[in-house]
Sequence to fold (322 residues):
Amino acid sequence: MIMSLGPYASFIVTSYVAAAIVVVLLIGWIVLDYRNQTERLRELERSGITRRSGRSATDTP
Amino acid sequence: MSLIDLANPTRFLALSARVLPWLAAATVVLLAIGLYQTALAPDDYQQGATVKIMFIHVPNAWLSMFVWGVMSMASLGTLVWRHPLADVAAKAAAPIGAAFTFLALLTGSLWGRPMWGTYWEWDARLTSVLILFLMYLGLMALWRAVEDPSRAARAAAVLTLVGALNLPIIKFSVDWWNTLHQPASVMRMGGSTLDKSFLIPLLVMAVAFTLLFVTLHLAAMRNEILRRRVRSLQMMQASRVAFSSEVGTGSHQENASKGAA
Fold:
């Protein structure tokens, strides 16, 4: 079934594409930020800097 | 696990690691169902197919206010209870709220052009939502400008609570002033005026976008906790370097004074 979007199809399609792009950018930014922070923590731990509790900063209990 | 237990960032990280995959899966499933129902929804007798923009515009518009509401609750947590995760929650929510508000403005504008004949009108609803968007950007700039997270958190919390005054203005702007924007048709006294064929896909999309927000917010909070750990470890590293260089300088001076004696 092909949807008919009428004379204003470009407005409808642009809305959905823009929403998809913004959501993908948000997800990408959050995923990259997570990788960046965990990598920085591992680098610091490799250089001998550890938390006072002695636990790894990237570990969860 | 009680709420008090969640105040511990390590416990929060453990919980978010367990919950995030399920939340992400539920979001994808619900978004898929919502988009399918959106595609099947009939054309409006006046608006034609442009009514499909509603299914993406309205959830984003609701979330633009809901996220500020979440940030306001978190700001109370920062100022009143000094909850360890409160300012983490507020800071993590701001970029996500800004994105939803941007989408509400953009899709509203794209809906307005064919329906009203203009992309933009300086009326109360559109202008108050634009102010909300600018407040999100201002808060993000404030958090970046102040280096100490606890000082930034208190200033941001005050600004967030002041900004919350804009929420009832946005909600009731269509009743208080003359505007091109239609009045409330879903959340209103006397029930929704929307037909079920529009209301059900709209509610499914709204729940899907809310789940998307919860998922992204938990993930962004996890990132913010890790960022603060990086900062505290870097400060420990810097203080160790400063201490060892001080000790080094002290022993050099001691040796020099012994040599002189």
Summary: The interface with chain A takes residues 10-11, 13-14, 17, 39, 43, 48-50, 52-53, 56-57, 60, 95-96, 99, 102-103, 106-107, 110-111, 113-114, 212, 216, 219-220, 222-223, 226-227, 229-230, 232-234, 236-237, 240 of chain B (CB under 8 Å). Chain B has a mean pLDDT of 88. Residues 196-260 of chain B form the longest helix (65 residues).
